[in-house]
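Sequence, structure tokens reproduced for reference:
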Amino acid sequence: MQRSMGAQAESERERRAKVIAAEGEVQAAPLLLQAATQLSKNPASLQLRFLDTLREISAEKNSTVVFPLPLEFLTAFQQKRNPTYLPEDSKVPLLKAMS
């Protein structure tokens, strides 16, 4: 009987936790939309946010971080004659400014 009541109580606690988490998601959704809209106004802002997230991750623990690079970035290393070459439609503004 006690096991049954304990299992029922645990089930109720899990249900409440899921409801609270779902309510938090509902409250966070408009703020995430607002942040995404703001970040999309300037491509560099998203890159800065990404780098800030990497900085936060690296400060927590010594762990491996997979750092994605745009394919346009790698084309600079594939050109043998002109190592600073980037295609005209490249989306790497910092590298374009340097070349």
